[in-house]
What we know:
By secondary structure, the chain is mostly helical. It is built from 11 helices and no strands.
Amino acid sequence: MREHGPVLRSDRVRSTVVLVFAIAGLGVRFWPGTGVRQVTAAISASGSRLAPAAGAFWIDWLLALSLVVYAVWQARPVQRERAVHRRIAWFAPAIALVDAAWPVLLAASWPLALRLGMVALLLLGLVAVLVVTVHRINTAPDLRHVDLYLLDFTFGLHLGWTTTLSISAVAATVVELGLRPSWWISDVLASLVLLVIGGVVTWWCFWLGDRVAVAVSAAWGLGWIAVERLIGSPHSLVVAIVSSVVALHVLGFTRWRRHTHVGTPVPPPSPTTGSATSAG
């Protein structure tokens, strides 16, 4: 069934808003106080066992750039009336808005616990929005191969990285509030959280259709958590090992699924919609 038709005024407004918000999200990265060092310090200053090393945060530049690329792509006249863009409608600008907001919050002068708590809530909400977005993309009736690459890259990378970043923000908030159990209890709790994250990403592999970008960016965050536990503070060999194992599982499981399970195919254009869905 065809889900797109003539370009509507709402399509033009939506595509413009997505483009403006995406550019704003990228611009925020250049704003004083929202750089990688400041963001890293705010999340890791409390000594959480789930805080990643500084190198992990450079993926934010890639995510911001990917949103701009998508925004430019969907703003093209031949793209505005397509169902896949209409299905995620205002989810895309919401993602760009939160992407721009959380570094600004961390750079504010409020108490660190308050800033971390607000960021944790924002990121958890962003995870929920991204799950719905990726699911809607996956079930769109007019997907093409270029969409699978572009949209997976943009929103899949966001989902995997935001998942690991959100647990880091939650853990940092808890520690900053003064909840500091003994070292072995902290190791056990951090390991359990990492195992849960591995289970969640594995489930998404089933439900969202073997999204490689989700697995790669989740493993990226998990890998940098392991690095920080080995060379940073607090040191924890147990958490480093568990985080590394979960990262390898996420990557290996997704690769295995793609080789043994046929994911959601791109539906071929029907005789009545072929001309409408073949425009680039």
